[in-house]
Amino acid sequence: NNGPTMEKGRAWRRHAWTKARAELLPTLPLEVVRLRVRRARELGLDYKAYASIRAASGHDVVALLFSSNALRVGPSAVAVPADRADRIAALRACGRLAILHAPIAPDAFTDANPVFDAVGPAPRFTDGWGAMRAAIRALTAERGLPGDRVVLIGETSFEREWSQAGRLAGYLPADRYFGART
Fold first, then answer.
1. DSSP label of 59
2. Is the model's pTM score more than 0.90?
3. How many CB atoms lie within 10 A of CB 111?
């Protein structure tokens, strides 16, 4: 069930890993830092957010998953507001996914916002972790994306739970993403 290991020495291994990682981070070569700053800019993320996500997941980000709340769309207004649409359209360095709350029609959303690579239905408020995970994985698997390399941009605490249930690379509040200067 992927719980903690029951082998002896777990605390020592964690201490050794934490110490080794702490010793490595301050000595990253300047060129590596420059590459990561450039990558953060390509993704539209501030460097601190990118570095945190990369450190936590151990991987680079390959896609951003936007919730319909983060995109400020609803059943009667499916077009993403111009400022957010422009920001998403400028993304070329990663996948652009959207996850839509019912009753937003995916076809209408896709017609109004053709820049998205994939669109899927959001988990319902009443869904458990398994159903949330299935909804998130269905969308990422459709594009062949490993979940631990996808970042969810959302607006609410239950969307943060989607990130955890789907075992995504991380969660970023929409105001931080769309307010970030790149």
1. S
2. no
3. 11
CA distance 176 to 145: 24
Total residue length of the chain: 182
- At 43 the pLDDT is 94
HSE, CB side, 13 Å, CA atoms: give it for residue 163: 23
Determine which helix (DSSP H) or strand (DSSP E) holds 67, and give its type and residue range: strand 63-67
What's residue 113's pLDDT? 96
**25: which 2 tokens?**
């981070």
Q: Do the Cβ atoms of 151 and 64 come closer than 8 Å?
A: yes
Q: Which residues pair with 172 in a beta bridge?
A: 153
Six token digits for residue 168: 């995504």
Buried b (16+ CB within 10 A) or exposed e, 3-42: eeeeeeeeeeeeeeeeeeeeeeeeeeeeeeeeebeebbbb
CB atoms within 10 A of CB 148: 17
Tokens at 104, concatenated: 């937003």
Q: How far apart are CA 4 and CA 13, in angstroms?
A: 13
Which pLDDT value is given to residue 179? 87
Residues of the chain with pLDDT under 50: 182
Distance from C-alpha of 119 to C-alpha of 106, rounded to nearest angstrom:
7
CB atoms within 10 A of CB 120: 18
